[in-house]
Amino acid sequence: MLNKIALEEAWNIPEGGSLGGFDSAKFSSKGVIGDDLGANLLDVHGTRLQQMDENGVEFMVLSLVSAGPQGISDPTAAENLARIANSKLCGEVMKNPKRFAGLASVSMHNPDQASSELKRCFNELEGFIGVILNDFQSSGPDGNTMLFYDDASYDPFWATAEQLNCPVYIHPRSSTPEIAEKMWKGRSHLNFSALGYANRVNMHLLGIITAGVLDRFPRLKLVVGHMGEHIPYDLYRIDHKLNRARFPNMRMRKDRLVRDYFGSQVFVTTSGHFSTPALLCAMQEIGVEACMFSIDYPFESIPNACVWFDEHVRDSINGRDLVRIGRGNALRVYERLREGPHRIKELGTAECGVGGLKAEEQEVEFGLYNKSWSRREVRR
Amino acid sequence: MLNKIALEEAWNIPEGGSLGGFDSAKFSSKGVIGDDLGANLLDVHGTRLQQMDENGVEFMVLSLVSAGPQGISDPTAAENLARIANSKLCGEVMKNPKRFAGLASVSMHNPDQASSELKRCFNELEGFIGVILNDFQSSGPDGNTMLFYDDASYDPFWATAEQLNCPVYIHPRSSTPEIAEKMWKGRSHLNFSALGYANRVNMHLLGIITAGVLDRFPRLKLVVGHMGEHIPYDLYRIDHKLNRARFPNMRMRKDRLVRDYFGSQVFVTTSGHFSTPALLCAMQEIGVEACMFSIDYPFESIPNACVWFDEHVRDSINGRDLVRIGRGNALRVYERLREGPHRIKELGTAECGVGGLKAEEQEVEFGLYNKSWSRREVRR
Amino acid sequence: MLNKIALEEAWNIPEGGSLGGFDSAKFSSKGVIGDDLGANLLDVHGTRLQQMDENGVEFMVLSLVSAGPQGISDPTAAENLARIANSKLCGEVMKNPKRFAGLASVSMHNPDQASSELKRCFNELEGFIGVILNDFQSSGPDGNTMLFYDDASYDPFWATAEQLNCPVYIHPRSSTPEIAEKMWKGRSHLNFSALGYANRVNMHLLGIITAGVLDRFPRLKLVVGHMGEHIPYDLYRIDHKLNRARFPNMRMRKDRLVRDYFGSQVFVTTSGHFSTPALLCAMQEIGVEACMFSIDYPFESIPNACVWFDEHVRDSINGRDLVRIGRGNALRVYERLREGPHRIKELGTAECGVGGLKAEEQEVEFGLYNKSWSRREVRR
Amino acid sequence: MLNKIALEEAWNIPEGGSLGGFDSAKFSSKGVIGDDLGANLLDVHGTRLQQMDENGVEFMVLSLVSAGPQGISDPTAAENLARIANSKLCGEVMKNPKRFAGLASVSMHNPDQASSELKRCFNELEGFIGVILNDFQSSGPDGNTMLFYDDASYDPFWATAEQLNCPVYIHPRSSTPEIAEKMWKGRSHLNFSALGYANRVNMHLLGIITAGVLDRFPRLKLVVGHMGEHIPYDLYRIDHKLNRARFPNMRMRKDRLVRDYFGSQVFVTTSGHFSTPALLCAMQEIGVEACMFSIDYPFESIPNACVWFDEHVRDSINGRDLVRIGRGNALRVYERLREGPHRIKELGTAECGVGGLKAEEQEVEFGLYNKSWSRREVRR
Asked: Which of residues 249-288 of B touch D (CB under 8 A)?
């Protein structure tokens, strides 16, 4: 599919490490994650853009690599990283705003300060269409205190995000050292993207929803990656077990189920989970409007995500839904994409190269997974 | 789901038999089809409306029972039945236009005459939102000639339907006596709703599409029942095998596939095919926008269709898509439902009783297929 | 997937045309169907075997190209074609019985003669594992009479097939000239593989089932291609509408539904319908045991079918089911594959190259649709 | 479906509370969980059996309610509870071994002691077919130390389970007080069955698998409930992200993926997650052989689970797979069910009341979700 939009795409600043964030210089070895993680994080207009062009990605929404400010337990340092990263991200995306936009980073030590920084990004800088929170905020002298945003004290932040029409991407992050030691020692290979990321961030997301944040801020939108961090598959059990009689103090609206928020206030992306059965399950449970394409570059390969979506998903769902997931829904969730320096437009299936017999193919049949009739083609 | 709209619902006039149409008096025995087919066809405001009320059906679109004018090989008699039935249908639906509308019947012996009758229904009568064609038009002295509307001579009729913004429902009918004798003798139990209906009408529908009718009349919409008369399941093979090199004279646009018309110009209903796996397959292949709820009353039971949709389908898909299939799509396809004497409105999930913990149920859990905790409830 | 078995694969004899069958010489032009239909039908051990090797097809079951004897209205000529073709097929498959077996062809003018020829193939010749019937038998002076095998007079044939443990493949064929003229004129592009094949053969298959043939011969097995010729998608409606009160003379067991025969006596193949949504629907409705891989070579491309199955289907279902559909079920349905000159064995997922991290890939991740991290590979 | 087998069904002993286990007396209030949780846990042959009879549950496998010995940080007390509970469970199930069997409880403080107790249950007592482990073993003076069985020191226990052909059910439990305080405070409604149970036990299960336990003990079988504790939905991401280059010390076979163990060594049950979309997703990803019916009584209602399975799942999958999930797979995983005092037999679809037109229904149609043609039936 042509003209895809990708939403959970990481980027870094060279001074990330020195500011307490992710140190790109430490991850330069090839072959373990991607082909050159550190360098790929720093790059925007070179390899990244070239691969976007080669893979039908019209637009990428960039965000500072996790954990960003959330990983810094000192408030001033966290705020400093956010501010510097946001200013630099503005500079990068404004070099090519037809292809890039940014999600703002904020320190979540102080909801008011987070609100101020978010307002700065939306009102004073250009190129921002949302904000990213990398799970809980590290706090405390040893970094083992976790601040969660389902606490009522964060309502001013949510109010700001709603007022700015700024969707909030809830992204995973690493556990605190203490939890890593207590729960994941001996199985640390599971503590990251294979399992731990989802196990942590799904609690935080459900915490925010069941705390009634989306009820108090009914125009607020939340986005999570990785096909919903296990939640779509488990929605029956989640709604079934949040027994109001057993949990009378749960603040979510009594006449709402968790599932009711998906597609209107909660959305998932495909980042890093290129599974057709999982996508089909999500489409059944939360509906196509709640699903959006993303890659998770450079932790995932752009061509890999796009071959999956352009060829395998295309083979399994109709063209209208493909274009919604690949592009259309992003424009409805991130409304700023249609405005300002980006001016991204809604496109139909034909404009996205979906459906239709191609002019040059009129003499051959539809449905050729292998163009040659007689020779098994291999990817090269 | 509350407030459903049903689209393929049969009705008859007492004089149907004497006019060459369906003779309700001949089908009064209980137990074979429905509980009293003949009487149920004649009824609108009694049992039918009561069952609609009891089963969350806000609105029914009525049409003269098949084969109607299509079964009458004498043009004058066919036109006469259409005209009388349309006038009477107008009378019936206008007694309660908030609950009923009609599909016009037309003789298809002469495209111009069909156009005139359709214009009369849309411009001079009230309560019509579409037209129904019961497959081919019987013709010839012995009724064994079949007129198909993919012939270019029918373009004036399609032009009228498009100009009136009148969706055309293509409904099945019985085979000619000759074909019944040649192909179905000894297996006539298969010649009707179990198989023959679909086998005939899917050819006619694909004939119309591949003849380019939808290209020449790009605002024209076609509707078929019974979950698409086998077509959604077979779309790969259909598109794959309509090899343009082999069939260079096929008039459909060279840059289009049959699948491209679904959801914009071709729509299917669930009438008489209450299968969850089939619906899920259709949603994958043609998308939720192309699917609409219908019953096929009184050949099918209203409660049966509604228990399936309200309970079983609800358990398998998300609420937004349920409401689209049950109501929303009908309003987009049959735009006249929003206007004139009907003024049917778009409704959200909550208004349709979908999603949300009900007030009276706040103390118990979501997800109870059986309300009692300990006693197996049976339907009574 | 390695070691696949393909079941509906056509072959022809050079004298086919002169004997009243398919004339390979007439279909030599490239580009319309396949790359050289006539030559590909004649070939066994050259291009065909090479493409099998290149695409993980261990075994092909060959059958004389449709309509074979069924297309010949003269009994003697039909019997002659069958006998000659069977003897030649024996010769071809016995050149390489580890890679090929055959389905016998029979004239169906006379059930006793058909039984005799089938016995000859199974008892006197080698390499036969089943029989193929190309829909109805053409009969009568003008070839417009259709003989259907649901007639009780065919019970001796079914008894023979059961006694020989010989599965019967019901394959489509063209319509009679008369039906082609009456029903398909003006839309003949639909009369073949795009629609007409399935519309005819699904009636015949359901005729045989509902006539009680499978009840009278409970060890008899039937196979149909093209993902079941529309039937799996419509099983609810078929079973729902075969109302025993309305059709009291239907001979099928009163305590059986049509769906009950699938997986034990009726099986479908994927031949020519490489649709993932259709396969998923079939797996829901009739179960994985009822589904078997096939190509429909040379009317379909071997690499195309295999790229679909090896890559796209593999991405959508688990490995155990993939191997069942690709190989295991064929060994349970066609038991002779395990015996005689073939001695094909059951294989597990690892032996079929399904599942597992490959040795040479241990350093990279699972789930790469595109092997290169950074370059979009295209098939060449 | 008749003759279902249910595998994750809780039971308690009156002295459970005083022995450090679950105190049934504390959970007698109606309406919060079930209708009388404490009493229902103590009951076997009264209400429980009656509801089994009323809901087509032929057989229940009982296990001591969680956390059992795993919740007791004092080794002697934990061992004592296990021993007493096992002896009593033997007594209960042997009162009616045609309807009940048990899973042994073991303290996991000491693998050798656990092995001894398991051997006692399998060799000296009757009625045991497997063992249950309620996630990690609480340990340490404050109960905040967690013992996980992926540690190599537990190999003697796994060896015993394998040697006894004793499937190991990995069941969830509550978090330690410390983790509850650190992670779940303020959102404790999520810490139990709605989310926390799965988030903990999926880590433990994947820890065991990726530690190579199933490789070292290739006949060992593991079972988890709640539709796989999120894992089937996420298998792509799990296998994709367990990059062997990044995690070279992961002990699982280098030529295996996590998904390769499902259906042969790892199985899931439907306990407490009565979601059709989730079951369909699991069937795609891990296959029908890996899925088994269970209820989670008395935390879940027997009629609710059974109405879902008998009516809703039946409507969505074929009969052969329904019977496998409802019964057949349990006999293949828990082989002792076929032996000793139980002698449970494999049954076909007809014997389980699946498929077929019922004798008393021969006059009406198949596919009636609502038996009455005209009256909407409600469950009473």
From this structure: 274, 276-277
